[in-house]
Write a structure and sequence with these properties.
Blueprint lengths: L1 H8 L2 H9 L1 H17 L3 H4 L3 H9 L3 H17 L8 H12 L1 H8 L4 H16 L5 H19 L32 H43 L1
């Protein structure tokens, strides 16, 4: 681990660029994928699209909150415990060593946790509990998120067996940000994918968007007449 961290610190400048551009894109990409899948599955979702969309981004929310808190804390409250850049310390040190970061980031990235939520949701669905269907779709979306992450992270993948195992990370041959494992190419491919998904969603949802706009326009016109 120490050798890997030393090697990664040599590429910190690239990492900071990717973490602020491609890294931030990663979560929206999950959201767009879930949205694109929700379009043909609307008949089966029956009002549970929000659960599917929430599940696409929920695993990344703790990481984002921890990052924002870390930036605030080490910029305004306390100095860094070691020389370097705040983002480097947060994502190269705390991410791998701090129990709060490990638990926070991997809680919804765990196949164990998400699998249990899926099983509970499915049980509730079969027993006609109101929370069963949305929980099932939420867990399904999170499992899809984790599956994508497993195959797009090399050195920093999720702890998929957390909390049973606090150390195992699958080392994918592809990384969404590490240059040595295709990060630069992946970032460009991800951008193209986002454009295609956005175009598909806009095309598929345009009739609904247009209808809502016409309703709003008619409502605004009637208020002006009054």
């Amino acid at each position: 681990m120490a050798a890997w961290l030393r090697g990664q610190r040599q590429a910190t400048s690239f990492y900071l660029v990717v973490s602020n551009v491609a890294g931030i894109m990663q979560t929206p990409t999950h959201f767009l994928i879930a949205g694109a899948l929700a379009v043909p599955a609307r008949r089966h979702l029956i009002g549970n699209t929000p659960a599917l969309l929430l599940g696409a981004v929920l695993p990344d929310i703790p990481f984002a909150l921890l990052t924002l808190w870390g930036l605030f804390y080490y910029r305004w409250i306390a100095p860094l415990p070691q020389p370097g850049v705040i983002m480097e310390y947060l994502h190269f040190t705390l991410y791998f060593t701090d129990p709060i970061w490990i638990a926070g980031h991997n809680f919804f990235h765990s196949l164990v946790v998400d699998g249990l939520l899926f099983a509970v949701g499915l049980w509730g669905w079969r027993h006609r509990q109101r929370w069963g269907v949305p929980l099932t779709w939420l867990a399904t979306s999170m499992l899809l998120h984790v599956t994508i992450d497993i195959f797009t992270h090399h050195s920093d993948g999720p702890l998929i067996w957390w909390p049973v195992n606090w150390s195992y990370r699958f080392a994918s041959p592809i990384s969404y940000w590490e240059v040595a494992y295709g990060g630069a190419t992946f970032a460009r491919a991800e951008l193209i994918l986002n454009v295609l998904l956005s175009t598909y969603l806009l095309t598929a949802l345009w009739p609904q968007i247009k209808q809502q706009f016409l309703r709003w326009q008619a409502s605004a016109g009637s208020r002006q007449v009054r």
